[in-house]
TrEMBL record:
<feature type="domain" description="FecR N-terminal">
    <location>
        <begin position="35"/>
        <end position="76"/>
    </location>
</feature>
<protein>
    <submittedName>
        <fullName>Fec operon regulator FecR</fullName>
    </submittedName>
</protein>
<dbReference type="GO" id="GO:0016989">
    <property type="term" value="F:sigma factor antagonist activity"/>
</dbReference>
<feature type="region of interest" description="Disordered">
    <location>
        <begin position="1"/>
        <end position="29"/>
    </location>
</feature>
<dbReference type="Pfam" id="PF16220">
    <property type="entry name" value="DUF4880"/>
</dbReference>
<feature type="domain" description="FecR protein">
    <location>
        <begin position="149"/>
        <end position="239"/>
    </location>
</feature>
<dbReference type="Pfam" id="PF04773">
    <property type="entry name" value="FecR"/>
</dbReference>
<dbReference type="InterPro" id="IPR032623">
    <property type="entry name" value="FecR_N"/>
</dbReference>
<dbReference type="InterPro" id="IPR006860">
    <property type="entry name" value="FecR"/>
</dbReference>
<dbReference type="InterPro" id="IPR012373">
    <property type="entry name" value="Ferrdict_sens_TM"/>
</dbReference>
Amino acid sequence: MTMRDEPRRGSAGPANLRDDGRHPVRAGEFPPLEREAYEWVMRFRTGAAGPADLAALKRWSETSPAHLEAYDRMSRAWIALGAVAEELSSANSVARYARTAPSAASPGEAAVTRRALIGGALAASVAGVALSVHPPFGFWPSWSEFAADYRTATGEQRQITIDDIGIDMNTRTSIALRPAAGVVRRIELIAGEAALSSPAEDVLTVEAGNGRVVAAGARFNLRHDGGQVRVACLDGDVRVECGGDARVLGPGRQVLYSEHGVGQAVAVDTNAVTAWQGGLVIFRSTPISDVVEEINRYRPGRVILTNKDLGRRQLSARFRIAEMDQVVGQIEQVFGVRATMLPGGIVLLG
């Protein structure tokens, strides 16, 4: 078995939102009023507040309409954090936060960082919460991803060759090798996205999710997100198998499969499918909810939509992966919304 690993071709873009003069934000900072509101939300969510805190919050929120609006926005943001918020609420990290939280009379700097989020969730896991199988918001890899032979980090891309099999790995991608008799002809795409070239003289099988792709002398792009797998044929022919269903794809054809079976093959723009290999991401009348999910694949932390109506609106644009945070700024300008940076690379968009 021969392997060659090319140097990394991509890296994570800047983690901070750009300062466009309207919302100057930096890592670990957000406007003072919203920082105070976030402190209040944390205090009540962690159960550390008492009757005196409730009275103090009432006085604080009545200071101005902006105070009440900030508290409402931070409350909705905390709810949007979903699983992470729930686990933090019952984890040891919450007790640690409560011990270090400032007094009710003067909410101050929040001691919440990405490390705290991860540490708290891991503490909950130790306490019996099975977070390692499906880590909330993808803040860290699952156990199966840790066991991969090759894995790319957030924003990283990698090019490898294994026994004449060419593999381009996109960001947050994990691959496991399944050699037989010293030769690799079977690969598992545990998660993420990869473009593969199979040798003409041998059959290559790539397993992903509950199905597989079988090819010889073909090029194809494979993306595995959660329980759904997307296969696009770039050159030659590939056979997609899932359960009792199967589809043969020619160049420019794509299919989705999941636990519900294999969908119908459709035509696809292969240049758009493989744009990531050239360091680009292309949106064509893409719902903002899907745009946000794509942003989250390439940058540390998490962008969270706090406005469902915004999620249904559409964006058409082309961006360089290394400048992915510009997408957030573009959404702000085009749709008249704003983004707020929280500690740990979390951005509230709505």
